[in-house]
Design brief:
By secondary structure, the protein is an alpha/beta fold. Helix content is 35%, strand content 20%. It has two domains: 2-143 and 156-161, Leucine Aminopeptidase, subunit E, domain 1 (3-Layer(aba) Sandwich), CATH 3.40.220; 179-492, 3-Layer(aba) Sandwich (Aminopeptidase). It starts with a strand and ends in a 5-residue tail after the last helix. The structure holds ligand BES and zinc ion (2 copies). One zinc ion binds next to loops.
């Protein structure tokens, strides 16, 4: 899909064109560009809107068929502010516009937001989110259906700001294209069944993503044994497929900045191991590598994004299965940093693979470390399906993540790392055990990880809730969502407004 910006009036559009207008009810009465089109039709639009009533709810689309001059089809899409962060709502609106235009057989779609800008947004952010939403919804998803739907695509998308200077918005379109590419890459990885997306195939794919200034190493079982990575090996011990630690390094051509370490949970299937999950909660556990997928998506755009900062990405990939060779309850794992961990629940495996990767990655002396993981059901209980949890040893880093998430249209909320809860991880047998009590499970998981980062300023993102959706929404087809990509891209390379 080609994307362009335009500053021409709506009346210059042709009968075969489709125009999607994102608007509030006031905008329909006041926006000069729309009034011009309305006047050219002797008030047809305002009469229809008055007669049928226009409710600005995000999921309603009013369809108007128009005679010349101007577009043959106008879609009015409501923006009801306040329900969701503006970015999220605009992304959905962009997706909805594309979906509807497609269902009317359009080949060319012009999208415009009329009336005043939604709060805390600018032309540049609106352009970015609408483009992102359209690209996310345009992405063809691979399925194994024998009969595929014959979906016609939109060839040309135009972001229209009548009478405005659009040159300055070009960088917003390019940024949206990069972010959408990373999100779509992450989604594809999450949606691929665990039968084919194994730790080794994930490693091969990530190696294929590497661009200029990047190096990818795929560390297998021998290397993991030599390094003493008992956490990753332990989690993978029951599986017929081998674990991997995937190490991606990005070095900018010139930089005096310290390294950023990003670590992703890459459990390609979480059956729970011997602490087997009950059927229903296992159904979607191919997405337990969503943290790794987010970072793999970012790897795929890193050399184009070209941040001025060295970045090391570690994906801790293993399959968590029950079998005769699986880790048993009461087993003690010897972790990379020398600590011992008594396994009291094999379903608390994410923290074990992350611990080795964090301990290894922080040895390089990064300026900051962030891990991303579908770590706990407790974080979903706390914050629901739309919002991720963040916690960390560095308030500054956590604040930075929270403000990046606001700019990226993702919901993230901070949980406290309450030191007293660390007692829950004490055991007589080893330095720690891998689970605490049921209550506050997202926090004890975070506290466990905090033991493996030394003094490095660190933050942990638990994306168990928002990384997957069961019910499709515009711009969010069911399955993997790519949640986290937007926030981390913004953090790595902030976009000036
Ligand atoms: N992968 C799960 C967490 C999860 C739950 C991700 C729901 C996505 C949606 C994780 O490995 C897990 O099973 N955690 C346990 C920890 C418990 C045994 C301490 C949990 O949350 O129940
Ligand atoms: Zn688990
Ligand atoms: Zn898991």
């Amino acid at each position: 899909m080609e994307i362009k910006l335009s500053s021409s009036p709506f009346t210059s559009l042709a009968p075969e064109d489709t125009l999607a207008l994102l608007c509030t009810a006031e905008a329909l009465r006041e926006d000069p560009a729309l009034l011009e089109l309305d006047h050219a039709h002797d008030g047809y639009i305002s009469k229809i809107v008055e007669r049928e009533g226009f409710k600005a709810t995000w999921d309603k689309v009013h369809v108007l068929r128009m005679a010349p001059p101007g577009p043959g089809l106008v879609l009015l899409i409501g923006l009801d502010e306040g329900l969701l962060p503006t970015g999220l709502q605009l992304r959905q609106a962009g997706g909805l516009a594309l979906e509807r235009a497609k269902s009317h057989g359009a080949k060319k779609l012009t999208i415009s937001l009329i009336g005043r800008l939604p709060k805390e947004s600018s032309r540049s952010t609106v352009t970015r989110f609408l483009t992102e939403g359209a690209l996310l919804s345009a992405h063809q998803r691979f399925t194994h259906k024998k009969k595929t739907e014959n979906r016609e695509d939109i060839d040309l998308l135009i972001l229209s700001w009548p009478g405005q200077d659009t040159l300055v918005l070009e960088q917003s379109v390019s940024r949206a294209q990069l972010v959408a590419k990373a999100i779509n890459t992450a989604r594809d990885l999450v949606n691929e069944p665990a039968g084919t997306l194994t730790p080794s195939s994930l490693a091969d794919k990530v190696a294929g993503f590497a661009g200029v200034g990047m190096e990818v190493k795929k560390h297998g079982p021998e290397w993991l044994k030599n390094k003493g990575m008992g956490g990753i090996l332990g989690v993978g011990a029951g599986s017929a497929v081998e674990p991997r630690l995937i190490e991606v390094s990005y070095t900018p051509s010139q930089s005096d900045m310290g390294e950023l370490l990003l670590v992703g949970k890459g459990v390609t299937f979480d059956s729970g191991g011997l602490s087997l999950k009950p059927g229903d909660s296992m159904k979607t556990m191919k997405h337990d590598m969503a943290g790794a997928a987010v970072l793999a998506g970012i790897s795929a755009i890193l050399s184009e994004l070209a941040p001025n900062r060295p970045i090391r990405i570690l994906l801790a990939a293993a399959e968590n299965m029950p079998s005769g060779s699986a880790v048993k309850l009461g087993d003690v794992l010897h972790m990379y940093d020398g600590k011992t961990v008594e396994v009291m629940n094999t379903d608390a495996e994410g923290r074990l693979v992350l611990a080795d990767a964090l301990a290894y990655g922080t040895e390089y002396g990064p300026e900051a470390a962030i891990d991303v993981a579908t770590l706990t059901g407790a974080s979903v209980m706390a914050l629901g399906r739309l919002c991720a949890a963040v916690m960390g040893s560095s308030e500054e880093l956590v604040k930075n993540i929270l403000s990046s998430s606001e700019h990226a249209g993702e919901l993230i909320w901070q949980l406290p790392l309450i030191p007293f809860y660390k007692k829950q991880l004490e055991t007589k047998m080893a330095d720690m055990k891998n689970v605490g009590e049921r209550w506050g499970g997202a926090i004890t998981a975070g506290l466990f990880l905090s033991e493996f980062v030394g003094e490095t300023p660190w933050a942990h993102l638990d994306i168990a809730g928002p990384s997957w959706i069961d019910k499709a929404q515009p711009a969010f087809p069911e399955g993997g969502t790519g949640f986290g990509v937007g926030t981390l891209v913004e953090l790595i390379s902030p976009m000036a407004d």
